[in-house]
Amino acid sequence: MIPQYLVDFDVRGLPAVKTDVIVIGSGIAGLFTAIKAAEDRKVIVLTKKSLMESNTRYAQGGIAAVFSEEDSPEYHRQDTLMAGAGLNSSAAVDVLVHEGPEGVRELIRLGTIFDEENGVLALTQEGAHSHRRILHANGDATGYEIVRALIEQVKQDRNIEVWDDHFVIDLITEQGECAGALVQRPNGERLFLQADATVLCSGGAGQLYRYTTNPEVATGDGVAIAYRAGAHIRDMEFIQFHPTALCYPGAPRFLISEAVRGEGAVLRNIHGDRFMERYHELLELAPRDIVARAIVSEMELTKSTFVYLDITHEPADMVKHRFPTIYETCMSYGLDITSDWIPVAPAAHYMMGGIKTDLNGESNIARLFACGEVSSTGVQGANRLASNSLSEAIVFGRRITERIRELAPADWTSLSAGCNEGRTETPIQAIVERRLKLQKVMVRYAGLRRDEGMLNKGLEELKRQLPIFTAALTKREEYEFANMLTCSLLITESALSRQESRGAHYRDDYPLRDDAKWQKHLLQIRDLGIVEEFSDDV
Fold first, then answer.
1. 117 within a domain of the structure (yes/no)
2. Is 69's pLDDT higher than 70?
3. Mean pLDDT of 426-431
4. Greater confidence, 432 or 96?
5. DSSP, residue by residue, 494-517
6. For the chain: N or C, fewer Cβ within 10 A?
């Protein structure tokens, strides 16, 4: 059993700091939500590293929103629902496609500079989109540009205080409401940060896997601390693997954007044969889960560890102009993408599941909100449509701040939260080695393709690490490992329960989608285990 709190404490004995709104995380969701909340509230933004370190920073392709006269919210809706494989919330998707364009306009007002062509916003197309609706910045550095603009705004805002290098250990709850967070400062001191509202914007969990496009900080902390607090966690079996991450000796698993295929790149196996026509009628622009599994199949057939992405037939000047970051990064490893095929392989990229929220971003715990990748709003379903993640963050970030304005001020003077389990065991040693072992277990047993035997073996391996929860933890790396273990268990258990293949969840022993039995969600609740949920949309 995973405990409610990772450490022993008594909230009455801790130093307390009060604010109006706590925002945990500094990607697009955290920064945008903080800026909107700070219009009439005091906000503290916590980040366990620095403002610049988030998944958003590494987002290349762009942000999806309807701006073309040839496009419409209905087309965007249809594409999102098709990719989501029957598990989207139609109400949440409607919110996204209708409110997304205004959210982009707000980003522009806040200083984001998107690429233009002939004086109008430049739009490109990505996999599973029926129209050109992807806005981008500096060619393939969209996330970096958005974060740059939002950080400038945050630094100028007198209502926002930024706490770098602070780790949120757990949420403090009282009678079904979130009162704030138990926070550890860089010097090891712990404090109780109180607020009327707490917003988790802590991003994804790519670091659960050995190969990922995510930065080191993406360890699933938000889902884990929300689960321990009693929040409902939904659809954790759906982990999206990006089909094309650089796979080259000495290089990290650097993301090769979907937009490269959108601009004409084709996939070839190691023999040089183009293969996507054998897997899907949309070829290289099929949904990500299909492309990723096709690549794995080709790797197995050809006994290779990679396939090639080929854009050498496109004009070199266009490639350099459209993808400067990718071009320069590959060149630094001796690959010229205008003349060389790019070796690529799938890597863990995005978490579709997360903390279940309503259309205002609020969880089942009052005053606790979730925004961005850590949330499960219903937009993404079983497989996120490319470039919908940045749109979701701004649309629901604004809705969260509107809901916060409706909340009455909280009174936390009689709080009695605490934990005294007498944890005296020394912390488990060799966290780095244990983290690597966990990552290998997840790749091997709960990765792109799964079956009952693999998942049970993975679960058995993960459960051997459960003693971490009885140890006296004191360091960020120890808390992170506990959170990674929590999320890994949630993913593996839900993947074992869902006996079908749908979206990003593929089982070799149940290869078909089964709407009659499985067009439903799996909720994971700490005190109840797995609960099946039928939504209004299925």
1. no
2. yes
3. 76
4. 96
5. HHHH--S-BTTB-BTTB-S--HHH
6. N
Considering 332, 349, 366, which residue would you say is the last residue of a domain?
349
Q: Are the beta carbons of 291 and 284 closer than 8 angstroms?
A: yes
What mean pLDDT do residues 173-193 have?
Answer: 96
Q: Give just the sign of the alpha carbon dihedral 401, 406, 409, 415.
A: negative
C-alpha–C-alpha distance, residues 295 and 276, integer Å: 9
Say if CB 234 and CB 379 are below 8 A apart: no
Task: List, in order, residues 6 or more apart from 369 with CB less than 8 Å away.
Answer: 197, 198, 199, 200, 357, 360, 361, 362, 363, 400, 403, 404
Instruction: Annotate 520-529 with b (16+ C-beta within 10 A) or e (fewer).
Output: ebbbbebeee
Kindly report, residue by residue over 482-505, the tens digit of the pLDDT: 999 999 999 999 999 999 999 999
Q: Outline where 430-475 has alpha helix (H).
A: 431-445, 452-463
**474 assigned to some structural domain:** yes
Residue 536 has pLDDT above 60, yes or no: no
CA-CA distance, 446 to 237, in Å (whole number)? 9
Cα–Cα distance, 100 to 239 (Å, whole number) = 24
> Which residues form the domain of 296?
242-349
In 348-416, where does DSSP find H-type helix?
A: 388-404
Of 15, 129, 18, 9, residue with least CA distance to 65: 129
- In terms of domains, do 333 and 424 share one? no
pTM of the model: 0.93
CATH number for 433: 1.20.58.100
- C-alpha to C-alpha distance for 461 and 400, rounded to whole angstroms: 39
Tally of domains within the chain: 2
Instruction: Tell me, yes or no, whether 337 and 434 share the same domain.
Output: no
Which residue among 288, 317, 349 closes a domain?
A: 349
- Report the run of H or E that residue 489 belongs to, with start and end: helix 476-497
Q: What is the Cα–Cα distance from 392 to 388, expressed in whole angstroms?
A: 6
- How far is residue 443 from each of residues 209, 383, 481, measured CA to CA in Å? 6, 19, 16
What is the set of active-site residues? 288
Report if residue 206 sits inside a domain.
no
Yes or no: say if 32 and 394 are a contact pair by the CB < 8 Å rule: yes
What integer pLDDT is reported at residue 538 of this predicted model? 43
pLDDT in tens, 229-262: 999 999 999 999 999 999 999 888 888 988 899 8
pLDDT cut 90: percent of the chain above it = 84
DSSP structure string for 91-159? HHHHHHHHHHHHHHHHHHHTT----EETTEE-EE--TT-SS--EE-STTT-HHHHHHHHHHHHHHH-TT
| Unique residue bearing structure tokens 């929103």 | 65
Per-residue pLDDT at 535 = 64
Contact present, 77 and 99 (Cβ < 8 Å): no
- The distance from CA 115 to its chain's CA centroid, rounded to whole angstroms, is 25
| Residue 298 is assigned to a structural domain of this protein | yes
Tell me, what CATH number does 270's domain have? 3.90.700.10
Q: In angstroms, rounded to a whole number, what is the distance separating the alpha carbons of residues 119 and 116? A: 6
